[in-house]
Specification:
The chain is α+β, with helices and mostly antiparallel strands. It is 35% helix and 21% strand. It has two domains: 137 residues, no CATH class; 109 residues, ATP-grasp fold, B domain (D-amino Acid Aminotransferase, Chain A, domain 1), CATH 3.30.470.20. Strands 8, 9, 10, 11, 12 and 13 form a six-stranded antiparallel β-sheet that branches. The protein has a four-stranded parallel β-sheet with strand order 2-1-3-4.
Length: 351
């Protein structure tokens, strides 16, 4: 248990250089999160999250959601270990835990039902002795074997799984390609014409430029959630492409997001190859960035994320629902499908 000290809390607030009331409120929230026990904070967030998801705000419907959330907490009684890092609130899997009423911890000494290796924004992962010990004890540890999500490894594993390559040699390739950092979450891609006289710098990769553009300075990307051997649906991202680098900006470039059934976007051989790619990469849970080239009609995996977030999609704890980029019906569908996949694939709980 984390001891709550009113003295330390008040001292922290008085030392804040707040410039507005909202900044002061944010500071108070951060201090409360620091001193309140994790179990109590998780309980508060579980109720807040589930109550925020409802469209209707009538007293009766709020009471219904309150009762439903309480039942989840008492009936499900699962605890998920995130290690070595505690998940951030925007993490999709953390929000699924809140939705399902599961408790979350980063303390490996507590009793838990499932563990996930969680290190945000990392590219290369050293072995965690604690998680390795759990695996030897036959305890499930998601993403334990995912040691590297660098673009260079993704290129190699993609070619192994699909039989064709996205990587190019910029010294001999003819045409446009994308040069980007080899590291995770950089969003620094830019388009260059090949062949080049010399490779730009160390720590970059060169990939074929996938023709995924639409009319009106837009591009279309697929975001594919992975739950072990199951792809519950596919996000369709429509993004701005007014400049050559805008498509690489991530969420800031989004125009709209749709949710479609997996087989509306991917055929069975493509699904099989994606799952084979994930198995080779050691990715039990995560999300992939996939593009389809309109010329050769092939799909290409350009990135793999083992700590995906739900920013702008369904995040009532952080974002007003009228600001969410997903429609209310799609938010409900996405959450239900992922929660079902999470339970079935990782906890052997059938619907």
């Amino acid at each position: 248990m984390i001891k709550f000290s009113l003295v330390f809390l008040l001292l922290g607030i008085t030392q804040t250089q707040a410039t507005s009331d909202s900044n002061l409120i944010d500071k108070v929230k951060m201090l409360l999160q620091k001193y309140i026990p994790v179990s109590l904070l998780n309980l508060y967030r579980t109720y807040t999250y589930n109550l925020s998801l409802g469209e209707s705000k009538t007293p009766f419907n709020v009471l219904q959601r309150l009762i439903s959330t309480t039942k989840k907490l008492f009936n499900n009684r699962k605890k998920i270990l995130f290690y070595p890092d505690y998940p951030y609130r925007k993490a999709t899997i953390y929000q699924l835990c809140l939705l399902l009423g599961y408790e979350v911890t980063d303390n490996p000494k507590e009793k838990f039902d499932l563990a996930i290796k969680w290190q945000r924004y990392e590219t290369f992962f050293t072995e965690e002795p604690t998680l390795s010990r759990f695996a030897k004890e036959k305890i499930d540890v998601l993403n334990l074997n995912c040691q590297d999500v660098s673009k260079s490894l993704i290129n190699r594993v993609f070619e192994e799984a699909f039989g064709y390559s996205i990587a190019v040699d910029p010294l001999t390739y003819t045409g446009k390609c994308v040069v980007k950092s080899n590291l995770n979450a950089q969003h620094d891609g830019k388009i260059v014409s090949c062949p080049v006289e010399k490779i730009e710098a160390s720590g970059v990769v060169y990939q074929k430029l996938i023709e995924n553009d639409l009319e009106g300075d837009r591009v279309i990307d697929y975001r594919v959630p992975i739950f072990k051997k199951h792809i519950p649906f596919v996000y369709i991202y429509i993004k701005h492409n007014k400049t050559e680098t805008q498509r690489f900006f991530g969420y800031p470039s989004l125009i709209s997001v749709q949710v479609l059934e997996t087989k509306e976007i991917l055929n069975q051989p493509e699904i099989n190859n994606i799952l084979d790619f994930c198995q080779k990469l050691g990715l039990d849970y995560g999300e992939l960035d996939v593009l389809r080239d309109k010329t050769d009609q092939r799909i290409y995996i350009v990135d793999a994320n083992n700590t995906p977030s739900s920013r702008l999609l369904f995040e009532p704890l952080q974002l007003a629902k009228d600001k969410c980029i997903l429609s209310a019906s799609d938010r409900k569908k996405v959450l239900e499908k992922m929660a079902e996949a999470f339970q079935q694939e990782f906890l052997n709980i059938e619907k």
